[in-house]
Amino acid sequence: MRPIPTLALETLLVDSSGGPVCGVDEAGRGPWAGPVSAAAVILHPEDLPEGIDDSKVLTAERREALEIEIKARAVAWGVGFASVDEIAELNILHATGLAMCRAVEALSITPVAALVDGNYRFKLPCEVQTVVGGDGLSLSIAAASILAKTARDRLMIELDALYPGYGFASHKGYNAPAHQQALRELGPCPEHRRAWAPIRALLEG
């Protein structure tokens, strides 16, 4: 049975660090188009929205409802992006770190430490503790996964209006048959990650 996220990790880190702890997660490392996003959240342990979980197991409607609750009830939250140009310049790993740094810096309260999903210790403006599978274990990371996902999805819908024909509003820039067909017919737009091997191969083919 899949574990339910709790504040156990946050509590341990608050006790050891003596200050506020945020959860950090990203969205959009894998798509063929659009920026990578990240969010940081400091939850109030006595005012938690019900149903916070890994964004991947929630419906879009549930994520959007929880986004409102998290933003209204969290101690602090922040969202950051790294653009397609920054992904090309830095590579996706370091661009993800840049988005995470921007999310932490956007918090209204400076955290002493951050719980970060995954096993890579990004350089952030506070202590970092990595948590593999963190979005399914930590409520703060799960909340961050929701905000990162909803923020990026909303931006991809806006990009769909700017660059019609690619279907960004439906597949959010990920690999999909309709996306592949649009690339063959229209070629890449400025929001495509042209350096990525699948796009190069598709265009060259």
From TrEMBL:
Catalytic activities: Endonucleolytic cleavage to 5'-phosphomonoester
Domain of life per record: Bacteria
Record has NADP as a keyword: no
Cofactor details (free text): Manganese or magnesium. Binds 1 divalent metal ion per monomer in the absence of substrate. May bind a second metal ion after substrate binding.
Subcellular location: Cytoplasm
Reported cofactor(s): Mn(2+); Mg(2+)
Keywords attached to this entry: Cytoplasm, Endonuclease, Hydrolase, Manganese, Metal-binding, Nuclease
Family matches, as Gene3D superfamilies: Ribonuclease H-like superfamily/Ribonuclease H
EC number(s) reported in the record: 3.1.26.4
Residues annotated to bind a divalent metal cation: 25-26, 117
Enzyme class: hydrolase
Pfam families the UniProt entry points to: RNase_HII
Domain RNase H type-2: 19-205
Alphabetized GO MF terms: manganese ion binding; RNA binding; RNA-DNA hybrid ribonuclease activity
One Gene Ontology biological process: DNA replication, removal of RNA primer
Function: Endonuclease that specifically degrades the RNA of RNA-DNA hybrids.
PANTHER family with a match to the protein in the record: RIBONUCLEASE H2 SUBUNIT A (PTHR10954), RIBONUCLEASE HII (PTHR10954:SF18)
Official protein name in the record: Ribonuclease HII
Organism phylogeny: Bacteria, Pseudomonadati, Pseudomonadota, Alphaproteobacteria, Caulobacterales
